[in-house]
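Notes for week 9. Today we move from apo structures to complexes. The key idea is that a small molecule is not decoration. When we ask for a structure prediction with fe (ii) ion present, the ligand SMILES becomes part of the input, just like the chain. The input block below holds both the sequence and the ligand string. Read it once before you look at the output, and try to guess where the molecule might sit.
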Amino acid sequence: MDGLEEKKERVRQHLERANNLPTLPVVIARVIGMVDSPQTSSRQLGDEIAKDQVLTARVLKLVNSGFYGFSRPISTITHAVTMLGFDAVKGLVLSCSALEDMEEALPGLWEHSLACARTCGFIAEQLGIGEVEELSVTGLLHDLGKVVLFQGFEEEFHQVRALVETRDLLFCEAEEEVLGAHHGLVGGWLLERWALPAKLVAPVSDHHDFRPQRSHAEWTAVVHLADVLCRAEALGSGGDRKIPPLQPSAVRLLDLGMEDIRKIMERMDAELDDIPRM
Ligand SMILES: [Fe+2]
Ligand SMILES: [Fe+2]
């Protein structure tokens, strides 16, 4: 095994064993267990989440933030669960629990993630892809690997940041150099450990490494495009000053023309004005 492969294996093993992954408090663990059980009703799930006031407030704030474009405000968790479906709620709860960790890891990462989530929704609507909510949650989680690296490999994380500065690299390029694995892969390992479905995991793993032949390529292409557009529009921050290159094969797979992309960007300009440009 060469040095980089060894490092990558060390990161992967950390994901298998570590207990200090982005926090999974008791209530979240219970919610996840309930989501996975076929016996759980929307009301039971809503009641469980509602026991945690901070989590409830965050989920409702996010649901009502324009994230899903509901025409009327959603005021109860049970209502949110009914509207969004179990898997979307699971991802949402996980994202909300990681919010503070994201802010601590990289200023602007939460805003970037939120912008990406909403842009995923715009793209999905433009393309007529169903399951907009779940796709948006994937956008919200796509850079979570950066939080894992920040928490589990602090020294290397600082090396990555220094490398980004001195050599003007993309964050994922610097991660590959220092750790042998970029945050997409790492985030995917985390979501696998959290037992999220493959259609949510694949776009996170592959968002910097799009290949049309891989499974769930359509969703991955959406997340990839949303990420690049958010970086191009400087919505929040991904921790570097560069815009990741847009893979032409992803645009081809989605069958989007310049006019379609222009429409998506117009919608971003109009509807994401509450997210700071950085
Ligand atoms: Fe990323
Ligand atoms: Fe990103």
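DSSP finds 16 helices and no strands in the chain.
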